[in-house]
Specification:
Chain lengths: 493, 246
């Protein structure tokens, strides 16, 4: 579902901004293909990937620092090196990768991606750098019950949403339910809880999971696949012919010299080992700390800017008089209604991908902007209510002393209104601590995002969730204590 | 002849279909104390609020010192409001500020006085209304009489030329009425121009230069207190007096 949503959003954005469209692509192809020179001039190549798919790409803790590693990263490094530029790896959910490519958030996507015909319509692919196969991971205790894809009659098979496996599992099995989830570690967890009977995934991934978890086993899938379906290629923005041609040299080398099997996979395997030696949650305290940090940064910044926006909006909503003022009031009202009537998740994606077409904003900034824009609409309503609850006599007294309407608002009404709205503002802050998790979809390393990474790193499904639950509670509880303290203090005077 | 400080010409004010003020033409000379009396709902508050444009007249003119407020821009109206202090029935002190801060706010924010200047002036005024020992109290801890005296001091802090009082003692317990009226009497003695809406007939008799009797949207009578209380001319006024003097 999210994938469909994203595609439609991109479609709408494309229409809105007049960016893209087939005419643009053809002209880009024919005349102005500066894709290669652009990258070389920039000096960096931004690679988008979804690091929850070991050994293709995953997070590893190296010398106390988390970084994205895996065979795809090695492929990316080779490509960058051959182009003479620096590689920058950006992580996001698999579903968001192609959108990010089309909206220029990343220059290329390497994420174990199959160059399917549908994808080829939207992006350009290089030659293949890897040809694997598919396996099915099952519980070791079920070994002997299942032989291949055809053994799952009446059972449920899991696959990563949006992946080739997902579509093929649906097509090539009968009487088997196919369950899609965004992350492979969730699927493994579901498998271990016997919610599903098997997980279809690429062979190297299956090997990694089985090697790291003694309760798992793998069986061949025997999916009937065309060559295209079992392979991975690098994706570039549509119309980047020059760049793709150049990169194909690197890709061909990788393929001809079998670099993936000989060098990249063994190297990735080593990371996997160091990664899974210690799967205690303590070992990952830094990852969680980063999550807490980002969650707090987002919440505090969004609350701050949301408050300012809320004040402006609430004042705008009280304007009366000439047509200009009426128009501003109408706009502010429309804004508040619109924001309150659309999901925050869509707003976050709109800011990141949509605004991203005009200015290239980092995910964190986009997340803060989106949440502040959202929060402002709610805060505006709290403030308006707070202002209306101040006795009209206060305004009259201030005006009779010669104070302008602005000074009256600022020095007399707002200070009293704040007292009334403080509790709602506090609630809003606490809500934002929790709701800021929504920016994980655009790859901001806040708490939920970090916990997902820890989950795929450790192959432990529940423990990280329990940890962040406690962390969220500590944050909200502390915040509400602090806010209560100030509330009591304010009631005193 | 001195120039009038307030001139009201053919003033009318309606709220929707409710014509509260119909046609009022009067004037106030510098140093005069006008007491406006009349039945409740007769438009006295509305009239007073039209004088400093807290209420916008439907038609007619209100001039202060020769400047027609109804034709001025907001900025100038704000400036002229500084010259007309107003005291309300319900005090309308700022509850989130101390007594001292209540008084200092407008002089500092509007007149641009320094904190020290404003503080000094505030203390002088608090002494004038006998409340300097309450400078740091919050309004909620004051009695009604004290609160109203603070409100008067707050209005005086802008050094107004005219003071408007809208039933300043109506919300007070009877034993506190005196302390507020005394402050007002003193102000009058010092030569302050005042327009006072009140039901305190004793105050009207002893302090007022003129009584304006207001009913049904008109000033029905404009006379000296002696004349008004001894020989009310209109039936409306006779009726009113017979009711309250009983
Ligand atoms: N803001 C307002 N909106 C509508 N009607 C009002 C408003 N203010 C006063 N009135 C009406 O005007 C009339 C006169 O009120 P007011 O001036 O308060 O009389 P008074 O002070 O003599 O008792 C009343 O009928 C009152 O309901
Ligand atoms: Mg009244």
């Amino acid at each position: 579902m999210p994938k469909k949503l994203l595609i439609s959003i991109v479609f709408i954005l494309t229409l809105l901004t007049g960016w893209g469209g087939s005419t643009h692509f053809t002209t880009a192809n024919a005349a102005t293909d500066n894709s290669l020179t652009k990258i070389q001039k920039k000096g960096t190549l931004v690679m988008g990937t979804s690091p929850d798919y070991p050994p293709y790409e995953f997070q590893a803790t190296v010398h106390g620092k988390t970084k994205i590693v895996g065979m795809d990263v090695a492929v990316g490094q080779k490509i960058a090196k051959d182009l003479g530029v620096k590689l920058k790896v950006k992580s996001m959910s698999f579903d968001s990768l192609l959108v990010a490519l089309q909206t220029g958030k990343v220059d290329m996507v390497i994420s174990g991606m199959n160059p399917t015909p549908a994808r080829k319509k939207n992006v350009d692919f290089t030659h293949l750098y890897y040809q694997g196969g598919y396996s099915i991971v099952i519980n070791k205790s079920d070994k002997g019950i299942y032989q291949d894809k055809d053994s799952f009659t009446g059972k449920t098979l899991g696959a990563q949403t949006g992946s080739t496996m997902y579509t093929e599992s649906k097509k090539q099995t009968s009487n088997t339910k196919v369950k899609g989830m965004t992350s492979v570690s969730d699927l493994i967890l579901a498998l271990q809880n016997h919610k599903i009977a098997g997980v279809a995934m690429e062979k190297p991934s299956a090997q990694a999971y089985v090697a790291n978890n003694k309760q798992l086993a793998m069986i061949p899938s025997h999916f009937n696949l065309s060559a295209d379906d079992t392979v991975a290629a690098v994706a570039f923005k549509k119309g980047s012919t020059a760049l793709v041609n150049k990169v194909n040299h690197s890709v061909d080398q990788i393929k001809n010299q079998d670099l993936v099997n000989k060098t990249y996979l063994p190297a990735a395997g080593k990371y996997l080992k160091t990664n899974t030696v210690n799967t205690s949650m303590w070992h990952y305290w830094k990852a969680f700390l980063t999550g807490v940090e980002y969650t707090l940064i987002i919440t505090v910044c969004a609350t701050f800017f949301g408050f300012i926006l809320g004040v402006i909006l609430s004042l705008a909503r009280m304007l009366q008089g000439n047509p200009l003022k009426t128009a501003i009031r109408w706009l502010a009202t429309a804004y508040v209604e619109f924001i309150r009537g659309t999901p925050m998740m869509v707003q976050v994606m709109f800011v990141y991908f949509g605004l991203g077409l005009i200015v290239n904003l980092p995910a964190l900034t986009s997340g803060i902007i989106a949440i502040a824009l959202n929060s402002g609409a709610y805060v505006a309503e709290y403030i308006r209510g707070g202002i209306n609850s101040v006795d009209a006599g206060q305004t009259e007294a201030a005006r009779s002393l010669g104070m302008s309407s602005g000074a009256t608002m600022r020095y007399v009404i707002l200070p009293q209104a704040i007292k009334n709205i403080w509790p709602s503002l506090g609630n809003e802050f606490i809500t934002l601590i929790k709701d800021s998790s929504i920016v994980s979809i655009i790859g901001v390393s806040e708490l939920i995002f970090q916990s997902n990474i820890v989950r795929s790193d450790t192959y432990r499904g529940v423990a990280p969730i329990a940890v962040i639950m406690v962390l969220y509670f500590i944050m909200t509880f502390t915040a509400s204590r602090i806010l209560n303290h100030f509330e009591r203090k304010m009631q005193h005077d | 002849m001195t120039k009038p400080i307030i001139e009201v010409q053919n003033l009318a004010k309606s709220f929707g279909k409710n014509a509260v003020l119909k046609d009022i033409t009067e004037q106030v000379d510098p140093g005069q104390v006008i007491v406006v009396i009349g039945p409740s709902g007769g438009g006295k508050s509305t009239f007073l609020r039209c004088l400093n444009l807290l209420e916008t007249p439907t038609s007619g003119h209100v001039a202060f010192n020769g400047e027609d407020l109804t034709t001025l821009d907001t900025k100038r109206v704000n400036e002229l409001r500084e010259e007309m202090g107003m005291v309300f029935q319900s005090f309308n002190l700022f509850p989130n500020m101390t007594v001292l801060e209540n008084i200092k706010l407008a002089p500092m924010k509007v007149k641009g006085l320094s904190d020290a200047q404003a503080t000094q002036r505030a203390h002088e005024l608090l002494q004038q209304v006998n409340l300097d020992d309450h400078a740091d109290a919050f309004p909620t801890s004051l009695s009604g009489g004290q609160a109203q005296r603070v409100a008067i001091a707050r209005a005086l802090a802008m050094d107004p030329k005219v003071m408007l009082f809208d039933e300043p003692t109506s919300a007070l317990d009877p034993e506190m009425v005196g302390e507020v009226l005394n402050v007002m009497q003193e102000l009058a003695n010092q030569g302050m121009t005042m327009v006072v809406v009140t039901h305190e007939m004793g105050f009207a008799k002893s302090v007022a230069d003129r009584i304006w009797f207001m009913a049904d949207g008109f000033i029905q009578e404009n006379s000296t207190p002696a004349d008004f209380f001894a020989h009310p001319k209109t039936e409306r006024a006779q009726d009113f007096l017979s009711k309250i003097l009983l």
